[in-house]
Amino acid sequence: MTHNRSVRDNCLPSTHSVHAGETRVKSLHALIDPIFQTSTYTFDNMAEVVAYQTAHNKGHVEDCFEYGRYGNPTIAAAEARIAALEHAETAILVASGMAALAYTFLQYLPSGSHIVMTDDSYRRTRQFCEDHLKKFNVDCTVVPLGDFDALEAAIRPETRILFSETPSNPYLRVLDVERFAEIGRRRGLITVLDSTFSTPINLTPIDYGIDVVIHSATKYLGGHNDLLAGVIAGSHEVVDYIRGYIGVLGGISDPNTAYLLLRGLKTLSLRVQQQNQTAQKVAEFLAAHPNVEQVWYPGLKTHPGHEIASKQMTGYGGVLSFTVKGGRQESFQFIDALKIPFISASLGGTETLVLHVAAQAYSDLNPEQCLKEGIPQNLVRLALGIEDAEDLIADLDQALRAVQS
Ligand SMILES: Cc1ncc(COP(=O)(O)O)c(C=O)c1O
Fold this sequence. Notes:
The structure is a single chain. The protein folds into two domains: 13-265, Type I PLP-dependent aspartate aminotransferase-like (Major domain) (Aspartate Aminotransferase, domain 2), CATH 3.40.640; 269-401, Aspartate Aminotransferase, domain 1. It is built from 16 helices and twelve strands. Helix content is 40%, strand content 15%. It is α/β, with parallel strands linked by helices and 405 residues long. It starts with 12 loop residues before the first helix and ends with a helix. Helix 4 (97-108) packs parallel to helix 5 and helix 4 packs across helix 9. The protein binds pyridoxal-5'-phosphate. Pyridoxal-5'-phosphate is lined by residues 96-98, 122, 165, 169, 194, 196-197, 216, 218, 228, 230. Residues 96-98, 122, 165, 169, 194, 196-197, 216, 218, 228, 230 line the site of pyridoxal-5'-phosphate.
């Protein structure tokens, strides 16, 4: 069956979210594509085998499959949908966001090379770059997000990758993506951006010149807190080199996850728009609350990243952080008093989640070590779901008022 994958290449995000990647010619006229739950594929005769292998040896074969580790139609549909949303030529779906990052770094960082990354990033990513890459004789320098002089100064002859996130975690710092991409181009480096917190609805980094866009699809792309997946998106030239490596390492996704992702993506634009609006309302409410010390959200004019976010993003995202007046005990009391948000480590789904940053993401560090990492004991991260803002605000208000010092 030939797959006419896209309605039109230049559609807007909501149209891509619904249509991109799925077949127009439907099997048995079912509206929804089946889940191709198969580990391998068959050929009718040896002439077909030879034709396939000849095409395969010349490069990537679209919509023709040999073995499950090298491709699957359900996975390919999810990849094509995400590529369309990211304005990328191609995308790879893998087992998790960490797998997407690890495969990209491992493939593009040979022994003896060097990566420059920005701080305030997902802690596991920093651990991977600072600790695990050492085993492969790869060095890492961390510079403050937004300090472009430090970024340029950190580049060495052996540097291969510039890596950043935007907005960052937990302080929602905003990277000037165009400037970052320009430095990478000028210095002959690959720029890799973890755009999980932005989503392709709020930011399309490839339009600003970024080479590789990474997502933890576990978050907004899946959107329902029911799957783990990761995405690597970019040009064929850059991304197909990683695809070949994953075929060897084997950490691919699976067709059921890809189906859930395709289904979740249909409402990506609606969910993200609602989450942007709710986060803005909640941030403004918290910023004015007597029991809150400080709020970090790029939609607030007081946030250092507000100006650049307003230029490059169409929405400020669904995550914010704030400090509860008092310390660890007061912030615990506040979290325990909440009725709607769940205490949980993820973000980007339909349910609002609350995270005590020190006690959950930095639980192995004592308070002094946490402070060195810039994490006070009263820092709380809130990842908005799609509940009504008014209900969430009423709940946050009663929980903040329940705090007794
Ligand atoms: C910004 C960011 N990147 C990557 C990851 C890792 O993604 P996964 O949990 O899907 O491996 C996370 C997870 O929280 C994240 O927040």
